[in-house]
Design brief:
Elements (H helix, E strand, L loop, with lengths): L1 E3 L3 H7 L6 E6 L4 H16 L5 E6 L4 H6 L7 E6 L2 E7 L4 H11 L3 H14 L3 H14 L4 H11 L4 H8 L9 H14 L11 H14 L3 H15 L2 H17 L4 H14 L1
Parallel strand pairs: 1-3, 2-3
Antiparallel strand pairs: 2-4, 4-5
Helix pairs in contact: 5-6, 6-7, 7-8, 8-9, 9-12, 10-11, 11-12, 11-13, 12-13
Amino acid sequence: MTIDVRDFQKEVIETSYQKPVLVDFWAPWCGPCRILGPTLEALERESGGAWMLAKLNTDENPQIAAQYGIRGIPNVKLFHQGRPIAEFTGALPRFQIEQWLKQHLPTPSKTQLEVIKTLIEGGNIYEAILRLRELLEQDPANDEARLLYLSLMALDDIDTAYAQAEQIKDPGAGTDIVEAVRALHQLVHLSEEETLPDSPAKGHLLAAAEAFLQKDYEHAIQALIDAVIADKSYHDELPRRAAIALFRLLGPKHPVTHTYRRRFDMALY
């Protein structure tokens, strides 16, 4: 259903808790607005009620337009759970709008994922892991959820994290996390390799693997730095790759990262 907004709080903000609301900020004098409007209305009709289209005349509602930073029209914002979650400006062609909607419209999986991210921000890691497992059972193709799951699991269970990483078809922005998991998985299984070449770095890497498995990340990174100094190119640059992987998974605020990152950088050069 398409509506002309009279009560923004009720018709957009409150309604967005029930279903997504697409707000078309427009004005009668705007030529591109007259081109875009019918396209949005057709897409809304075809959505089967999955979302609602609300048209807001910026000439009649300048305060609301200013509140949401409208500097050019047509401007389209998608509201969900009381707030704008995505937007575009200009009279995009229909196929681009369809792709935009596909990317940004909330789904049950996306909503669950947002809840899980909130749990992580609040430090409720165990609950987040349980919910991620449930989500992946319901939506096994959800690579974003799987990336988040393996990033939480990598320090506690690198084999489980590696198995999850190998199921991700397109890591996209999560490529660094996937590569980090692969590097650390290779590190902890280094002693199982039958044709492992001798090198001064070898002993340091084996010590790093043992420390990592014991969750002694300080000694693990110390051993990896020693391996870099001994032979940073050893085994396809495993000393360097494993150190970067550990820093990435620990995060920039972790004391080990804070203490040893600069030392590692100096060892590289």
